[in-house]
Amino acid sequence: MPEGAAAPAQPAPATAVLPQPAAVTVPGSGLGCWDEQPRSPYRTMPEAERSALWRQRLHEAEAGLTRYLVSRGDGVHLTDWFTLQSAIFADLPDQATAGAAEWQRVFFRGQALMERFLVGRYGEPALAEWARSNADVHREVEPDHGRGAADPIHRIARQAELYGSDYEFDDEQPPSADRAALTITHCAIWDYREQARRSGVRLTLASPCTYCTEATSANIRAKGFRPEYRLRSGPTGHGCRWEASAPASVPADPDPRQEA
Asked: pLDDT per residue over 37-76, tens digit each?
């Protein structure tokens, strides 16, 4: 490239986008919503799309951590930071040939390393601050598909699908521009964590929900919607319910947790 020439624009991250459902009116109410979608619509997500989402998630996490460390201004030891980055990006798979499982391994290893780095230096409260920093990156790199509140809920569904979780959209009120909800009836992150632990990955947190709830809430807020969640457990294992809604009069940084 000639000196001083602008670098070519990079394509937007590839994402699985469902066909836009038709807008319909709820009989007798005059209210608009989207036509019904399958309850678990991403079961057929192509392998390339899965790999792309794992890479995007790794980018959001690492770029968010860089941003967070800069914002602290407390002189993190650069050698430690470079060592961490080297470990995060060690032995990356070949983008042209590697399957999604390889990118999943890289993401999970990187997530575990970054959690240990942060908690070891700043304690668990730093995870919420990191999540908010990641959400600033997420706001820029996650495309808006014009579905309003349904957009962040579909992102949660796609992440759930990456792990093979069981999930479903509401039957009574399908995702709409003003409100969307999703229930994960079995969160397979717990299963993958146990497999990783047995294979020698050092885990910092006793529960993946500690960070996941902070990160997911921050991502929903970053897209301009109000998050609510409720953790659940039962015969199908660990799970959760998420809702994103258009903000009304919402106080700054409300606690998204609901009482069971």
From this structure: 455 668 788 999 999 999 999 999 999 999 999 998 877 7
Give the torsion sign (CA, 21, 25, 31, 37): negative
> Under a CB-based contact definition with an 8 Å cutoff, are residues 69 and 129 in contact?
no
> What is the rounded distance in angstroms from the CA atom of residue 110 to the CA atom of residue 121?
17
Per the CB < 8 A criterion, the answer to whether 158 and 45 are in contact is yes
pLDDT tens for residues 124-177?
999 999 999 999 999 999 999 999 999 999 999 999 999 999 999 876 777 788
With b meaning 16 or more CB within 10 Å and e meaning fewer, what string describes 85-111?
beebeeeebeeeeeebebbbbbbbbbb
Per DSSP, the three-state class of 135 is helix
Please state the length of the chain.
260
Query: What domains lie within the chain, and their CATH numbers?
Result: 46-245 (3.30.1380)
| Cβ within 8 Å of residue 83, ≥6 positions away | none
